[in-house]
Amino acid sequence: MRVTWREKNARQWISELSDRIGVAGWTALAMTPALAAEVDQHGAAVRDILLLGVEGVGTVGAVVLLASYARGLLDHSPDWSPTSWLGVRLMAVCQLAHAHDVRPLSATALPDAG
After folding, report:
1. pLDDT tens-digit series, residues 50-83
2. How far is CA 93 from the centre of its chain?
3. pTM score
4. By CB neighbour count within 10 A (0-12 exposed, 13-18 middle, 19+ buried), where does 47 fall?
5. pLDDT, tens digit (0-9, with 9 covering 90-100), for 23-44
6. 57-82 in b/e burial notation, b at 16+ Cβ within 10 A?
């Protein structure tokens, strides 16, 4: 599959966001079942927002949509921590981007919440 310039840049941006979440954030996610469940719920909400609210979603790599969504969140609230609402939402975006990569976002490819 050919990766577009937008997908490559979006993937790089998501990687940088994941680095900003940091080891502490990802460790907390791995060690705290309640946080993992919360991230899964945020992931489902983000997926639904993008699938139902963005025209032409099936023609764009998921990573591009997810990076754009996360950038919009950060435009409105640049200060966050991994355990804040925004931090949890951003973790969910990173997980979705990793799960979908350049494929279009779909309901069937979402990891099971549980």
Report:
1. 888 877 666 677 888 899 999 999 998 888 888 8
2. 1
3. 0.82
4. buried
5. 888 999 999 999 999 999 999 9
6. eeebbbbbbbbebbeebeeeeeebeb
Residue 10: Cβ-neighbour burial (10 angstroms; 0-12, 13-18, 19+): buried
Kindly state the DSSP code that residue 61 receives in the 8-state scheme.
B
Tokens at 78, concatenated: 């640049």
Q: Give the mean pLDDT of the chain.
A: 84
Distance CA(60)–CA(103), nearest Å, equals: 8
Q: Which of 63, 27, 29 is nearest to 46 (CA)?
A: 63
The per-residue DSSP string of 42-92 comes to HHHHHHHHHHHHSTTGGGSBHHHHHHHHHHHHHHH-----TTSHHHHHHHH
**Of 88, 48, 86, 54, whose CA–CA distance to 68 is shortest?**
54
Phi, psi of 49 (to 5 degrees): -55, -45
Give the angle 16-21-24 at the CA atoms, nearest 5°. Answer: 135
